[in-house]
């Protein structure tokens, strides 16, 4: 934040790119003295009506005095922001600080007048709403807490902008003017409004890329072969329904047609709009292409060209320049180094990718940061082989390459609303904004399954080309947080496809009870064991014997599905000698008909080398790549000279439409894979049920939030980051009802004895040196010392074993009731946010990584599930006849720690170790707290695209 001494410095951190309501982008930046000509030009393009609404009187032009006033700001008491596209103003907003009488004022006055002006051609795009978010954030930074605005009653659009913002406000009417006053402190409603606008804008920006009305492939070669010519052919052969153009500046002047596609030397020469440009030229030629596209009004780019951050430092700078250049024209980018995009909708049929064949239409959305993994996923999903049989088509496919602009977050926004996508599969090599991804994932998972596999988990660095925020959290913690958000987190591409096939074809199971039936006893037992390993509750396998007929399978499956104690059925099948394809088809029909009679329960098949059955089960939509329709010459139409229309193109072969009554049953070549997919579906279904009642964050009357804030502010005044001492830690935690067991320093035997008398016997003697702290296994702790003699003897043993008291830092502490030692931690990660962690104390837990995590703020349901999520949880609940611990007391402790960190983000780390949980109550025996200025929370600020 700037101070009064630097109030005239240009605040570069206020610059931001935003996505508007229609999916385009604009640049928001402070207005400076150099903007006089831009301001005058902008004002000349505003209608007389808009000028009247702004100044309450006819105001045809700005005077020199006006221009000076509107371009000279101190960036503290007078601030102006502009939204720009192509470097030109499309809207402005300004505030002027005022005092109680409404006259100009300086700090500490906390109110300001705000006014907007939006060019008529850009009204309705959400520009004013975006500017309001940014000017409000600037005002809060400068100590302004309230805005006032005077609006003519006829200016209903601007009144709606203020009223819909979600801030706490007052409205009055006097002298023919509506006066609005509203506080700038974010509220739950203002954040909800902001997130809703962000969702609509980002979803629309992806929709414009995936559903273009016209496409130009820039860089199509003059001879067959090459990337550009391949992409052009793929779009044409897929039967794209819009207008398609080939562009290459090296085309001969008289060339008008390439492979039946209208050809042009520049996109500017295209007679008509171009919604999407697929860029395949060398990287050094891309800037010229982007300028041409921007000037022609292209809405978005798919940059297949490589040679950016995927290569070297110079490439990273080239990538940054590419993003800045594209955004200056309001365009979004997929790529660079992208594999491309696919939309199988019959209304679009777009294959703007390097995939030579269009996948069949289906219900799975696919996002991959890697082109190689993307094509592997397409291959697995849409052809037989690779271990997974059956067919499930794709709705949309996006391969983001270097992910310089459009990311998985943007695609999630689109999929959430897309009625053609029922399941989302994502291969991620990095998560640029984990906090936002978690928020979007939670919302998406509440509506449709989201399955994620993360690559580069153990590399320690982001893949080349990916700009990501640093996180201190280990991968296991990130995975746990994603699961908390409803994400189905799997480890391999095979698991990703396996889970996707099941979720796209079958209903969610109501519980973990599984019936197993089939014609192989051994395969049934393998399935039974796999269910137990995955935490499911299998019934004993039903062996139909190898003599079982299709009718026997039908009857057994019907009985299993009708059983109220069964939530899902796994059918195991081995080949029947001599039956051949006819027998396979009969068995498949028997299974499908039985499953169709009870559509609420999922059915899976485990088969062994039974290609015919797999094909028959999925006969409703073959996995084989569809044959490309024959290319036909494209002829100009009167509506679009030189452009081919959908009516002139052959229709591709369609798969049966969803909902035709056919129930597709996923088949797996191994019991373990089928059961693993089913277990993920069971866990996800349970998350969906729990998400309906997420619990609440309880209030505690004994919490002293104000006192804690004052204490923290006093400590931070001593330095930017510090670890509190023992007394300070106890005092701060005590304000939140967290009592730390008293421990007194014992620098010598006499002080130890004095401390024990003050506390009262029996006591414990502990060494608190870093290398011995919490290491009872090393012998640095002596317990149950009943009197002074035992205490002095223990003191002598410790110093003899480990060194002088100054090195050991011994303390004396009263004995706590016996119980289970646990550890509670909270940390604020700059990327993921505040995280609460729980585990049992001890080397075994650390070695196995047996720690559970939840995002803060934690609800009562979160706390309950947290302590039950660790593998060692049975030790808390009476394992092998031991007394169960006081779980409610432990849950309350977790909730109080969560409240502390949530209320005071300056508390960046808390560790309570050990926390001894007894059958009645608990004792916090050690605690540490670290304070620091909190990391920036961009999710609470105005909407912005990642800076480049």
Write a brief caption for the model.
The chain is an alpha/beta fold. 34% of the residues lie in helices and 21% in strands. Strands 1-2-3-4-5-6-8-7 form an eight-stranded mixed beta sheet, with helices on both faces.
Helix content: 25-40%
Q: Which of globular, elongated, flat, extended, rod-shaped describes the shape? A: flat
Radius of gyration over all CA atoms, rounded: 33 Å
What distance lies between the first and last C-alpha atoms, to the nearest angstrom? 21 Å
Low-pLDDT sequence parts: 1-6, 384-390, 620-661
The major pleated sheet works out as: 8 strands, mixed
Helical run tally = 27
Annotation, overall tally of beta strands: 39
Q: Averaging pLDDT over every residue, what do you get?
A: 87
Oligomer: single chain
Q: Give the strand line-up of the largest sheet.
A: 1-2-3-4-5-6-8-7
- Counting helices, strands and paired strands, the structural category is alpha/beta
Q: Can you give a write-up of this model?
A:
With 948 residues, the protein is an alpha/beta fold. It has 27 helices and 39 strands. The strands form six sheets. An eight-stranded mixed sheet has the order 1-2-3-4-5-6-8-7, sandwiched between helices. α8 runs parallel beside α9 and α17 packs across α18. The radius of gyration is 33 Å and the shape is flat. The N terminus is likely disordered.
